[in-house]
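hey so i finally got around to running the thing on that chain from the lab meeting. sorry it took forever, my laptop kept dying and i had to restart like 3 times. anyway pasting the input first so we r on the same page abt which one it is
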Amino acid sequence: MANDAVVNKGRRRFLTATTSVVGGAGAVMVAIPFVETWLPSAEAKAAGAPVLADIGKIEPGQKVTFAWRKLPVFVVNRTKTQLDALTGQDSHLKDPKSSNTDQQPSYAQNETRALKPEWLVVIGLCTHLGCVPEFYPELKPEPFDPQWKGGFFCPCHRSRYDLSGRVFEGVPAPANLQVPPYQFVDDTHILIGVDPGKGAA
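ok and heres what got predicted. didnt touch it at all, straight out
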């Protein structure tokens, strides 16, 4: 009898522990889909749901790419030297004043094409045939431009853009890189896909 009591207690403890573990795992599995319902679905993102981008760790002079509507969005933290290089290039650019209003919101229709001068936010697709341009941030001669002052170079058909995404004369690309709607949430985050003063959809 004593041995049966010990065995029964052991079985009871085992069954209790097993039930607790299985029940806990079940609760976690139920909670995961519930939490995921708070996040935009892949379909919503593809349809244009806003994307919160953390820009806090982007070093001066560095570019980081985020995805919005299945498009690459370049975010560049421009240095003072890079910003100073934007002046004096108008005569080499097709649309230096960003007159083509289809390429940027009105709040980015300026020399820096930005809400804050140091932060460039552009869709990283060449306006010629949609290739992804390469980022050349340094102000030094390059094989494709001995007078290079930083910017973007498309390897497909050699289109060039300055550090504001403005397209150069004499290249296949017809327009500046497009600036998407965006706003600053705080000093280290931007919301891509929503104009300033408007809440997330």
